């Protein structure tokens, strides 16, 4: 595991040209990720970046980290597998709100309760972008889309409350309307020792709503610091997070001041403990009933 | 101060650092226009892409002029200002680009970018304590006004955009 203070954002930019629609919020997100990774200083070959399927899930390919554009909704299980197999890697996981909270929604709770040292970035555009504008789990109630012609009846999932209630140790939100804020929140999330989550309100300029575009964000956003929120106050975080969809708060909702041991650290501890008790060639004996 | 710089204390900025900052601002703008041109070429918007390519050359020229000034004054002295300290100072934001944007819209993007850069130097001037730095920012501010005038003159020559917008011709998305 190495850190190199001389790394700069450009070192994390790959030669692959993004094919997102011009204006897509994800352009800003990938820039912020370059900055955050340069700030953390781990070289690209020590980073694994996993995603699911969607416009946003193309993101690992635009970085110089090892990337895995995997299966729709399955980025978290794959990222956890990578982290367990090679705990020294810095593991990032990313995708859309559909990827993370529809098809992949069931995996979130388990990733959170295991607490591996992984950063999960969701580009929440409240729509399915890649498949051309269907209703997503975070779409607001009443939204008219090709799959809700007269307006949806469903209340949106609240990603912030979802993560907080399962016990995530780090929960934050950002928008490309504040690039510096977004880069520093992502860096903080990566530095947090445990499972960290950043919900990025990343506008879809092609199928997204007018009120969810960068210009609108600029007038709506309120930093959590400016409302006097202390990120160590979990109950305060719940209260503020409950306004998802009404208020655009940016910054850190919750950072556990006493982070518990990570799954990978516990696992390594168990491995070390058993290594002294069981010879390597008898390791399967533990699973065999005698 | 502005939120588009991080870790720069204008009150302690030397002329060398200020020149480096100005070079980085131009470099960032050049690279952003390059990216926007690539995006629009990919999305079959050739007129706007061509104009952004023209802006790439402009910004590269401004950068080269400043770099030459810096070389004459300070040679190979190392820089303490880095690209990671600035965000979209003269570079148009990614959100400014749209597939099928008109040439007029592309020129308006450049105009807003020049206005943004002007506002940046105006905002930075009072915090700079070195008079040479203030003078540099003042001259850069005036350059930005000149660039705005050039873009505005181009805009004035263009016919108005058609009333129909590109999205009026687009197919409605269908369920999949
Ligand atoms: C198993 C499976 N089901 C469905 C799909 C179709 N599909 C591809 S991306 C996507 C949702 C895209 O929305 P989101 O995850 O929010 O990402 P975005 O494109 O908006 O960034 C769907 C339903 C698929 N590729 N695989
Ligand atoms: S469809 Fe939407 S989310 Fe997908 S690239 Fe285009 S703007 Fe971005």
Walk me through this protein's architecture.
The complex is a heterodimer of chains A (290) and B (176). With 290 residues, chain A is of the alpha/beta class. Chain A has a single domain, classed as 3-Layer(aba) Sandwich (Rossmann fold), CATH 3.40.50.970. Helix content of chain A is 32%, strand content 15%. Chain A contains nine helices and eight strands. An eight-stranded mixed beta sheet of chain A has the order 2-1-3-4-6-5-8-7, with helices on both faces. In chain A, α8 (234-241) links the parallel β7 (221-223) and β8 (248-255). In chain A, α1 crosses α6 (179-191), α3 (97-103) crosses α4 and α5 packs antiparallel against α8. In chain A, 54% of the residues are buried. Chain B is an all-alpha fold. Chain B has a single domain, classed as Ferritin, core subunit, four-helix bundle (Ferritin, Up-down Bundle), CATH 1.20.1260. Chain B has five helices and no strands. Chain B has helices at residues 15-42, 46-74, 103-124, 131-157, 166-169. In chain B, α2 (46-74) packs parallel to α3. Chain B is elongated, with a radius of gyration of 18 Å. The N and C termini of chain B lie far apart (48 Å). The interface between A and B is medium-sized, with 37 and 29 residues.
């Amino acid at each position: 595991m190495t850190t190199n203070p001389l790394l700069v954002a450009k070192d994390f930019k790959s030669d692959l040209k993004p094919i997102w629609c011009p204006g897509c919020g994800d352009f800003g997100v990938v820039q912020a990720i370059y900055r955050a990774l340069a700030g953390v200083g781990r070289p690209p070959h020590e980073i694994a970046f996993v995603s699911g399927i969607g416009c946003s899930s193309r993101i690992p390919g635009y970085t110089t980290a090892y990337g895995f554009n995997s299966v729709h909704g399955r980025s978290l299980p794959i990222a956890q597998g990578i982290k367990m197999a090679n705990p020294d890697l810095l593991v990032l996981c990313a995708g859309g709100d559909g990827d993370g909270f529809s098809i992949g929604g069931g995996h979130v709770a388990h990733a959170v309760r295991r607490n591996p040292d992984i950063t999960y970035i969701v580009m929440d555009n409240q729509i399915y972008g890649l498949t051309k504008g269907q209703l997503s789990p975070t779409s607001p109630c009443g939204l008219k889309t090709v799959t809700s012609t007269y307006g949806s009846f469903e209340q949106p999932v609240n990603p912030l409350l979802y993560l907080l209630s399962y016990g995530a140790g780090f929960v934050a939100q950002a928008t490309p309307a504040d690039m510096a804020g977004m880069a520093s929140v992502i860096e903080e999330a990566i530095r947090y020792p445990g499972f960290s989550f950043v919900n990025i309100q990343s506008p879809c300029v092609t199928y997204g709503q007018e009120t969810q575009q960068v210009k609108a964000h600029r007038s709506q956003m309120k930093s959590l610091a400016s409302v006097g929120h202390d990120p160590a106050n979990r109950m305060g975080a719940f209260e503020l997070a409950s306004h998802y969809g009404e208020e655009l708060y940016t910054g850190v909702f919750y950072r556990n001041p006493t982070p518990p041991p990570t799954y990978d650290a516990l696992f390594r501890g168990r491995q070390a403990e058993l290594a002294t008790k069981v010879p390597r060639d008898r390791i399967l004996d533990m699973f065999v009933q005698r | 101060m502005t939120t588009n710089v991080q870790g720069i204390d204008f009150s302690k900025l030397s002329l060398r650092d200020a020149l480096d900052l100005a070079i980085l601002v131009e470099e960032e703008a050049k690279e952003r226009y390059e990216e926007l041109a690539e995006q629009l070429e990919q999305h079959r918007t050739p007129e706007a892409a061509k104009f952004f390519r023209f802006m790439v050359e402009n910004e590269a020229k401004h950068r080269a002029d400043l770099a030459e000034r810096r070389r004459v004054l300070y040679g190979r002295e190392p820089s303490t200002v880095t690209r990671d300290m600035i965000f979209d100072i003269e570079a148009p934001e990614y959100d400014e680009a749209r597939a099928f944007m008109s040439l007029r819209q592309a020129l308006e993007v450049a105009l807003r970018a020049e206005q943004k850069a002007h506002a940046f130097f105006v905002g930075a001037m009072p915090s700079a304590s070195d008079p040479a730095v203030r003078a540099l920012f003042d001259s850069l501010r005036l350059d930005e006004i000149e660039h705005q005038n050039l873009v505005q003159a181009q805009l004035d020559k263009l016919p108005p955009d058609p009333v129909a917008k590109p999205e009026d011709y687009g197919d409605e998305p269908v369920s999949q």
